[in-house]
Amino acid sequence: SLKLPSDSFKYLGWCDIEEHGVRGNQLRCPRVREGPSEEELFFRKEEHTLKKRKQVTDAEKWEKRLQENWENCAELNLSFQDLGDLYQVENFKRILRRLIRVEKLWLVDNSLTDLSAIRLPRCRELNVNKNHFTSFKQLPKIPQIQHLSLAENNITTLSGISDFRHTPLESLILKRNPCEFQERYRQLVFSNLPNLKMLDGIPKLPEDCSPPDVRFFYRMCTIL
Length: 224
Description:
224 residues; alpha/beta; Leucine-rich repeat, LRR (right-handed beta-alpha superhelix); seven-stranded mixed sheet; 8% strand; Leu-rich_rpt; LRR_dom_sf; TILB protein; leucine-rich repeat; repeat
């Protein structure tokens, strides 16, 4: 029988690297990982894969939190995290909630479906390409966003896009989403976002700003 690609890792266990001085904001593309709890390992019948964990004190927890230093990240790439288990997803969101100063954030190909409970108050550039978002309502709160990339998601409708009207959004990428095939797609996007300068890498064109009376005329039938 053929071996799976993960077969060589089946005997590996989770471990914490102690006594190191590397901070979270010093890594270019860190992996967000936290091992499963003792209870979860018990129910999986995998408790033998880990040594008995020592009791972590509050001081050690606080030291680890300071070491991560997510609050001071200005640019962060958390793409390709392979979030396969619930404890990984929860730990991932825990870090996102701490990104209060991040300005550029990449979350590409993480199978994300809903980040509406997350707020990124200073984020100016957000890339969430290749995820599973189906609506603009599922995106995080990004009041200062200028460049937003949503390529290769599953956004079927432009409903909710007007929520970005009061943001400084200049560039939006929606390539390879079902909504791209909607009739008068570009005109609808620009009518909802009058301050938008570029859509899918193409600058705003005169035909993207059809006046209301012309759009109404297109829906009329002229009989000669």
